[in-house]
Structure formats: C-alpha cells, structure tokens
Amino acid sequence: MPQRHSKNNNDLAFFTYDEKRKLGYGTQKERLGRDSIKPFDACCLCLKPVIDPMSCQKGHIFCKECILECLLAQKKDIQRKLAAHAAQQKQEKEEEEERLMMQKAKELDEFDQQNHGAVPQYSDKNYTRGKNGFHGANSVKVTSYEEEALKTMKAFWLPSATPEAPVKVEAPSTSTVCPEGNEKLKLKSLFPIYFIEESSEEKKSKMLDRTCICPSCKVTLTNSMSLVALSSCGHVFCKKCADKFMAVDKVCLVCNKPCKERNLVTLEKGGTGFAGHDDHLEAKAFKHLGSGTGMGLVRPAAKT
To answer: What's the pTM?
Structure first.
C-alpha cells in the first residue's frame, strides 16, 4: 500500500514534520552504553583505575595523588583571589580618601571665592575647563547649573561624562570543595579504602583486569551493585552484607574493628563529567535543521 500523499508531498516551500524527522531535527535520545559509564573502581579525576584510593564522606573515589593535587591547586587559587580582593579593598580605600580630600579642597575654594573673589583651581579632571570657560567637546560655555548636570548625566559620547564600569572582585570562599560533588571537602575528611581482590589463580590467568569481590559473600563487585565502605577501616562490602551484618553487629567482618552506622558510606558509581549515572543513563541532544548537517546520512530514517 503506498504512503499517504502528505508524506510524499515535497514541493512545499517549507519542511514538513515528516521531513524534519528524517533529517534528524529535534531532541534525540540515546541510552548510554557500558563504555560511556565510569567503573566503580575508577578515579573521578583521571578516570583510570584507582591507585591508593581515597573516598570522601559522600562516596566519591579518587586516587590519592589526584585529590591531593586538586586540593593544593584549589588552595593556591584561593590565595590568589584573596590577594586580588585585598588589593582591591586597598585601592578603594585610597580612592575614598582622595575623594574626601578633593571634596574638602573644593569646599575651601568655594568659601574663598565667595568671600574673597578668588578663582578656584581644581586638580580633579571632572572640574577642569578649557580656554574661555569651554568644557572640552561641549563647545558650550558651562554655567554652574550645567556643570552640576554634567556630573550626573550619563552621556557616553562626552569624554568627561563617559561612564566607567569598575571590575569588582568578590570575596572568595576559603574552603576547598569536592571536585565531583561540589560540597565542602577537607583533607582530614578523606579516608583510604581497600578493595579485596580475587585470589583464584584460574581467574587471574583468564582475566587481564583485576576482579574485586565482597569479603563477606565473595560475590564479584560490578557497577550494577551498590557498594558500601567503612570510614573507620576502609574495607568495601556490598550493600546487602553491610545492611545484614555490620549495621547489626557494629563490627567490620575483615578486621573486627568497631564501627557505627555513620561509618557506612555508600560509594558513588558510574558518574563522570561526560556521562550520567545511577538512573540517569539517557543522553539527549538537540539538533537544528540546516543545510549540510548530514543528519540524514548518519541517522536512518524513522519507520512509518
């Protein structure tokens, strides 16, 4: 059965809805694959397998070297911003003192002019006059009323009334933040974590990558599982074992170190700066229709 005439009618001066769909116009959705999701044992900064892993209280995993370099760079940036803010405050204070001094000098000159007929001499650029009392590019003799109006008038075409936009440096925050979660992070709040690797020789010979297991149930840890680390000792377990044993016994199953419920930290998984994680595994992109986009070549036409 042939298609409807509305879908084959291509002699219009505009694109129809069906033609836009075939060219890839609009919001395109695609589910992220395994290659787009960060493994649970990868660093959030370098995206490589962790070396000397450390975790924050929110469960973000970093290499020890990466997170220390990040915190050091943040402290240097804070010191630079603090120095710039102090220099700006000093400059504003000097400008305010100069303004008060000029205002006091102006008041004294006006008093002398009123009582002795002296001509005031101002060093401020806002009060300078050209020959014969003309005000620069105005070509109009300035009276006291006009001079006062020129101070408040926002006329960008006049050199003397050109507005200035001062660049102000806000006072920076003095606390370092987590590069993944943007919450406040201190070096003493980080704790090392330890993954228990599979000790079977057969799996070691078959698998090139390391395989981590839960020390309690011996299940291989994957991205599909929720993992829990103990901030008291750093051992990593699956969430089922953590809720079943450690939340009740209040002791680590590996080193028998006492732990409390607040020491159970759920590790974040699968999130990078370029991909979603957890339930947000669908990427969206809006495509505009235009000549030479090539969307009709790379994306197959929608079935009707």
So the answer is: 0.61
